[in-house]
Specification:
Two copies of one chain form a homodimer.
Chain A: H1 10-32, H2 39-46, H3 50-57, H4 60-80, H5 89-104, H6 107-121, H7 130-146, H8 154-177, H9 186-200
Chain A binds a DNA duplex (30 and 30 nucleotides) through residues 6-10, 13-14, 17, 38-40, 48-56, 59-60.
Chain lengths: 204, 204
Amino acid sequence: MATQSARRTQAERTAETRARIMDAVVECIADVGFGRATASEITRRAGVTWGAVQHHFGDKDGILRAVLEDSFERFAERLEGMPGTGASVNERVDAFINCAWSHFGSADYQSTFEILLQVERARAPGDLPTWQSGMSKEWSRIWRAAFADARLSRRESLALQRYTVSVLTGIASMRVIGGGGQRRPDAELDLLKDALSRSLQGQA
Amino acid sequence: MATQSARRTQAERTAETRARIMDAVVECIADVGFGRATASEITRRAGVTWGAVQHHFGDKDGILRAVLEDSFERFAERLEGMPGTGASVNERVDAFINCAWSHFGSADYQSTFEILLQVERARAPGDLPTWQSGMSKEWSRIWRAAFADARLSRRESLALQRYTVSVLTGIASMRVIGGGGQRRPDAELDLLKDALSRSLQGQA
DNA sequence: CCGCTTCCATAACGATTGCAATGGAAACCA
DNA sequence: TGGTTTCCATTGCAATCGTTATGGAAGCGG
């Protein structure tokens, strides 16, 4: 099978190697945690050597940043298909949260989250926070598009957005530190949806 | 000054050395992040040598666990002084969340949280999750004492508790990965309080 | 078919890590 | 006051980390 590997274009080889390395990083962190996701462990899982990593990503921080950007990108793509102002507020909230949770609740995001924490703590004081530079703008744009008809001040809207992100992040975090959170946090998500629907409809 | 140090009881020496080491761990993680909180950096900040750490805590994991336990303990103590069922639900919710946030929002908790993530990922599959073994019981007991009069099923009560912890954890997490969160998240906390008050009073 | 570039494996390197072993000073107990 | 225990500094070590330098194989353009 796949003995075509003797005949592949450079672009194909590059794409596959990059994907294998990035997948290995995510899988490795998910399995043994960030602290034990060493360079040798990553290369072992990816089935490549460190030379390959060096060629494509430069150094270890390079892979981590690439994984983060990839995660942000796929999240933004996922959010694109949100229903417009045609549907009811409740329906839009439901779709939005479900979609967002399909990202925050994914196994991959647990790894991304650990990378995010680690990279963020190593950030130079002058640089923009990783979340803000990578995700905040997309998130905010899509949010405004989905809930453009809500009668909220800019301040109120931002607070709601921050609350949403915080809750999703928190539920995801608890799955890590709380351990056995294989259970789907439907109750928590429902509480979040209620709060959103109520606030977006101006019910103080 | 403090040349009294030539005359101190063993218990005093022990207490001070332990406190200095644990404080150094927290301070170190808060400053440079868990990844760079190495043994030498910790001992440098504490003004002791590794021998002292080894004597009191055994190994590095020992310090981390001690810091976690200490954090849990102080949190439980803080929660003890909650008003009983005399006050109104709104007042109790307000006091409870303010008190809980004074823990989750503290600078120390950021370090604790990073330790928690790291230790949890290194946990053996059979062991209890750190949060559950260290904090869940106390939390649940105090919660039930504070809101004993709420007409909620056990399932609903647990969901509310989990939601509360998730939101607080999430807000705290966003301060780390979002960077500039020196701002007090009053708006988010208000949204949480509203959800709690409403649910505890049975307003579907 | 052949130079050239891209891609990746191999094999070292220096720096750090956390830990074990030993020794001595201070505090306690009699 | 002398023996014992507690406390902690020192030193050395094995392991491992991430990185760099170099060489060769695979695809590409002429």
